[in-house]
Design goal:
single chain, 370 residues, alpha+beta, six-stranded mixed beta sheet, 17 strands, 38% helix
């Protein structure tokens, strides 16, 4: 699975308490050869480490240990190096295993707990900034889920939708001498209204920025009969034929996505400036961490490539550059991911900006509620 699959409902399931031990493995991976040839070996070593820890843990019975080992072995065999991104997360209990490919790196780690480790999944989902694309024509409505570098057709909530064929109207043709415009027909209006209703149900379950794609006529009718266009953040005025591939549609969308990204970044910058003006601003990892822990952060902005290893001491963060001892529980190799997860859990908005955008503020900043 990838970050596009991480819905709010699934996240609740992953975080739910489980009989000890629930095993979480995380490790960085490589997208291309020859670098990714080492990933399978590193994963096998990580699985072996997990098995060794299970065997050494007196709280883990033999049957449980054997069942989890089988799940981990299956997961290791199922990992597809062709789908590798920047990190791999494997989750396992005696009854299941899950494989997640993430577009954000994660440290190499084995965690045995009474729930799965989710911080890396949550941070990767937030950084990916997923969006929806609704493509419409007079007789078809398709939905695509995307991130900055990937797009795939969604088969959810009733999509894709196809309108029933229009009945011919020979009497009109005899009377007027032509056939009516398909976009002027009541059937087309009913179909696009139905597509809009279906889309709103999807947005309610999984809210994301919405882009619209279609001919000018199709989008004009959708504007008239639907409610979802009011919340759209961008539109591509070009037809989307039924055979359009996700990669081709993404290329067409790139100028629209880039325009929206620039507007979004400018808006975030304005919100941070306003927070500085009212002295409700935090800059730098230590300040933002404290604000998030106290529930005071309303907006957290992070540079996309920002990650830091730190030692947590007396509620403060001290950077750690090298020589991390795996047994040192005060060290957090993915403190930014942990901060992102905590911020989202507290109701804060988390946004990722281009590297260099927050250079004057330690690569991370927050607008505070108070």
């Amino acid at each position: 699975m990838d970050t596009d699959d991480l819905t709010a409902g699934l996240l609740r399931e992953l975080r739910a308490a489980k009989p000890y031990p629930a095993v979480s493995l995380t490790m960085p991976t490589h997208r291309r050869t020859p670098d990714n040839t080492q990933d399978a070996v590193r994963l096998r070593n990580l699985v072996n480490e997990a098995v060794d820890r299970l065997e050494a843990d007196p709280a883990v019975g033999r049957e449980t240990r054997t069942a989890i080992k089988e799940q981990l072995d299956r997961a290791a065999a199922e990992v597809d190096p062709r789908r590798a991104l920047d990190a791999l997360v494997v989750l396992a209990t005696p009854d299941e295993h899950q494989i997640w490919q993430l577009p954000r790196t994660a440290p190499e780690r084995v965690v045995l707990s009474d729930s799965y480790l989710t911080r890396n999944l949550v941070a990767a989902k937030a950084q990916a900034q997923p969006f929806w694309v609704l493509g419409v024509s007079a007789d078809r409505a398709g939905l695509w889920g995307g991130t900055g570098d990937a797009l795939r057709e969604a088969r959810t909530g009733g999509f894709p939708m196809t309108a029933p064929p229009l009945e011919p109207d020979p009497q009109r043709e005899e009377r007027i001498g032509d056939t009516p415009s398909i976009f002027g027909s009541q059937e087309t209006r009913v179909f696009l209204r139905s597509a809009d209703e279906t889309l709103r149900a999807v947005l309610a379950a999984d809210p994301r920025p919405l882009y619209l794609a279609g001919s000018a006529q199709a989008l004009a009718v959708l504007d008239e009969v639907g409610e979802s266009p009011r919340s759209a953040v961008g539109r591509l005025t070009k037809g989307v034929p039924a055979g359009t591939t996700p990669s081709a549609l993404l290329e067409e969308l790139r100028p629209v996505l880039e325009e929206r990204r620039k507007r979004f970044a400018a808006a975030v910058d304005g919100r941070l400036d306003e927070a500085r003006g009212r002295r409700a601003f935090a800059g730098g990892l230590d300040e933002v961490w404290a604000a998030v822990r106290e529930g005071r952060a309303g907006l957290v902005a992070v540079e996309e490539g920002f990650q830091r290893t730190v030692r947590v001491t007396d509620e403060h963060l001290e950077p750690v550059d090298a020589g991390v001892d795996p047994a040192d529980t005060t060290v957090r190799e993915d403190i930014v991911d942990e901060l992102v997860e905590r911020a989202l859990d507290s109701g804060a908005e988390v946004v990722f900006l281009a590297d260099g955008s927050l250079a004057d503020h330690g690569r991370i900043a927050a607008a505070l509620r108070y």
